[in-house]
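dumping this here before i forget
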Amino acid sequence: MRRRLGSVRARATLGATLVVAVALVAAGAAVLLSLASSLSGQASTEADRTAREVAAELAAGRSYDKLSLDDDDRPVQVVTEDGALVAATEGLERISGTGTDAVRPTAAPVPAATPDDEAEGAGGAEGAESAESAENDTDDGTDDAASGLHPGEIGEDTSYAEGSAIVDGDTADYRFATVSVETADRGALTVHAGAPLSTERSAVGTALTVMLIGFPLLLAVVAGVTWLVTRRALRPVEGIRREMAAITASADLARRVPEPDTHDEVARLARTTNETLTALESAVERQRRFVADASHELRSPIASLRTQLEVGAAHPELLDVPGAVADTVRLQDLAADLLLLARLDAGERPAETRVDLAALVREEAAHRTGVTVDAEPVEVAGSRGQLGRVLANLLDNARRHARAEVSVSVRRESRREGEWAVVGVADDGEGVPEADRERVFERFVRLDAARSRDEGGAGLGLAIARDVAERHGGTLTVRQATAGGALFELRLPVVS
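structure:
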């Protein structure tokens, strides 16, 4: 189980499901709250309308027994200023939430008959006008101290509360609205009217039920779709993994991982993996050739030296001491070249010292005949020993292939990327064919034209020279010289 949850597919599915679940819960809660608030507002409006209709009848002077209280779904209470219940919906058995628990009206004086009562059905507005006329005839113009309302006036403010009531044996929850009204003959009255909350509760319950059933199904769909989509997206990755495992087991670097026909990150990963395999195969092949060529190059001087020593041991008078010394020197130089290449391959960084290339070129040229130097002072940063080795290799290569003359130049060159020191080593030989101008820098490579004349070389000098140049942040290239031979150009960044 832990392994399955550790997969990218399982984590993606779990993460997507959790995010959708949180979003659904938040959205569901918002919908339920909005629905409940909307329906509660409708109930408040209905309760307020009922309370104000009854209050208008009271303001018009209608008697308690003539009030419109016959709606079984709208429990109504009319309470006097001292808290006595004077009118209530018929069939009201119990009520809570209004502040008055009484359900049976107490006896109250019956007001004188009004035109509204005699008409029995006249509108509340006409009753209100009659009440206002009575107020003008009888009121002295002062406000009621308790309610702050004039006789016949209904309070503008409505207070709300929630409670329950039993009407004709049916129990229900209600939203109660409370309205004050001032009458001319009965003083301040309070009307409590309720609107049922059954619609709100039913709608919210239905919505909650739908969410409780629908959300898990939706989450299951999201999890399933995410699982399938992730599986489809990661299928090429599994193919890459299997192929890499097979390559590791077989050690066959010629194999390549499958590249999906897409333009996404997985396709780029496959291409990069194949490029890495190509580079690794090339590096391993170069290493194999290097080992084979090194073994071959070492075999010759070692065999020659052994033969001479064996002959000298059997016939001291026939011992070729100069030949043995030459083979020993050749073997020593080859071992030094191989050791330097090994250090360069291991990523050895050159020392950061200031080196005067002009002085170094004159120093190397002084040990060789037939070399002319034209150098201006220019300093670079690096290893004096390694840079001297580069110049020595270039000069030795030029002397082996020159007919008569080797020329060396050192100059400063300005480019967009900065100042560069350029060392040119030219000879008047046959030059390097254009097709072979990169091959000459490969290890143990000797061109056919040079093989007969280069008896002592192992094909490592130019390879070492390019590696050292690159380690110093420079380049080493070859092209045709003005005299027709080869011109090797070493470029190194100038130290400021």
